[in-house]
Amino acid sequence: MTSDGDRSGRRPDGGESIDGDTTDPETGRQSPVGKPVVRGDSSVTGRSTEEAVAFDPDDPADRERAAEVVQSFATDDPDDSVTMLRGAAAAAALVRGEGSYRAAADRVGVGVPFVRTWARVHDLPRAVRREVAAGRLAPSGAKHVARLEGQARLTVAFAAVDDDLGVREVRSVVSDVTDGVSVESALAAVGVALGEVTVELPPALYRAARRRAVLDDRPLGAVIETLCEPEQ
Question: Is there a contact between 11 and 2 (Cβ–Cβ < 8 Å)?
Fold first, then answer.
């Protein structure tokens, strides 16, 4: 078991993912590569679904379009989250279509690290990509989160959003975790008490939760824990 509670430290190979969609056993992608699952959700992006471009890695025309997007993405440095997610999708589709990071990078004339970095962003859990699309997690922070595996991705991404961590702090946490430090300790080093959040409850629910905690002689957090079983 890893320090963040995930037995393998990796996402499950196939079946239902923690985000509710299936996981590709080859890439770990939790929905089809290149599909605008998040970018096509106007409730998240605030944009028309028609703007969301899909990239089919098995379609030569789509691979060509993906190559053009990656080339533009590498030189123009877009400043909005949705455009960056589109570039990440194009990179991931190109890697799948060409068969390797090297082949994809050679096709568009960019470095392998660039392609690898953004393809991994596209492979992040859907919940993390939604945070990016909504502007709550900076794409540059997501790049660092993408270096992690398994539940650590969700843990660090959510902590970054909830505690308003900067990119440097996210990078520091990720570096510590990849060096073998536990996720909880790495977050504590930047001032985050993992699991501590402030929530607003309707008065009736607040009273019910507090009453149950007092009658059961348990901390309020323990009462909430019984209502929210962790997803596997």
Answer: no
Q: Are 150 and 2 in contact (CB under 8 A)?
A: yes
Do 212 and 170 share a structural domain? no
Name the more confident of 211 and 72. 211
Q: What distance in Å separates the CA atoms of residue 45 and residue 157, rounded to the nearest whole number?
A: 18
Contact 57, 63 (CB under 8 A): yes
Q: How many of the other CB atoms lie within 10 Å of CB of 159?
A: 24
For residues 183 and 179, give the distance between their C-alpha atoms in angstroms, rounded to a whole number: 11
Shared domain check, 146 and 83 = yes
pLDDT digits (tens, 9 = 90+) for 13-25: 333 333 333 344 3
Specify whether 50 is located in the same domain as 155. Answer: yes
Q: CATH number of the domain that 157 lies in?
A: 1.10.10.2830
Q: What's the whole-model pTM score?
A: 0.74
Q: How far apart are CA 44 and CA 184, in angstroms?
A: 29
